[in-house]
Specification:
- The chain is of the alpha+beta class.
- The chain has one domain.
- The protein contains five helices and eleven strands, in the order βαααββββββαβββαβ.
- A hairpin with a 5-residue loop joins β2 and β3.
- α1 packs antiparallel against α2 and α2 packs across α3.
- It is globular, with a radius of gyration of 16 Å.
Length: 204
């Protein structure tokens, strides 16, 4: 798969500077509220609510800010959430695809060149709030991705270990996330830009 940076289409509105805006939908959040089980409500609805509130106001590639904001929000509601830097491969039915993010991310000014998601260990869920920054996924229009995965409880072959992979389906696309190493996580939590309100992440 070839590394690529998502490019805004001519018909897609952009923010000043040419950035693709984050897209969200209160209707999606409302639909989830109507149909999800009470014990799943916080974990499933929160990313959609965050995206809906940010709709059109911020660039789509704000995965660091999104993850840190949602991690604190989950924590306030008693849900443990952990940052997880990843490399993402998006594959279509034709077998072709594109890789985004990096297993060795770095900073360029206020932009973090990688991709970041959340893992909720206690419920074994995987949250990608900004997955629609990637063109192929954005076209589907289903909003943030929240998937159920299998996590190791004995410390062996855990999903969160470097090199571990999570595969999730979105319509005809297969999204394969590869977990980056501890240096990638340190590049977020130990960098002063990680707490800046203008932090963005540029997929590479």
């Amino acid at each position: 798969m070839t590394p690529s940076v998502p490019r805004p289409r001519a018909t897609t509105p952009v923010l000043p500077g040419g950035a693709l805006p984050l897209r969200g939908s209160l209707d999606q959040a409302a639909t989830l509220l109507q149909h999800v089980k009470p014990d799943q409500m916080v974990e499933l609805v929160l990313p959609h609510l965050w995206a809906a509130l940010a709709d059109g106001r911020v660039p789509a590639n704000v995965c660091v800010d999104a993850c840190m904001t949602l991690r604190h929000a989950y924590g306030q509601l008693g849900v443990r959430a952990e940052l997880l830097p990843v490399d993402l491969a998006v594959q279509g039915v034709d077998g072709g695809g594109t890789r985004y993010g990096s297993l060795t991310p770095s900073w360029t000014g206020t932009s973090w060149n990688g991709h970041c998601v959340l893992v909720l260990p206690d419920s074994e869920r995987f949250v990608d709030a900004t997955v629609e920054q990637f063109d192929e996924v954005r076209e589907i229009g289903d909003g943030p991705l929240v998937g159920k995965v299998v996590l190791s409880t004995d410390g062996n072959s855990s999903m969160v270990e470097p090199g571990g992979q999570v595969m999730l389906q979105r319509k005809d696309l297969v999204l394969t996330y590869t977990v980056a190493g501890p240096e990638a996580l340190a590049s977020i939590v130990e960098h002063p830009e990680a707490v800046a309100p203008t932090t963005t992440a540029a997929p590479v």
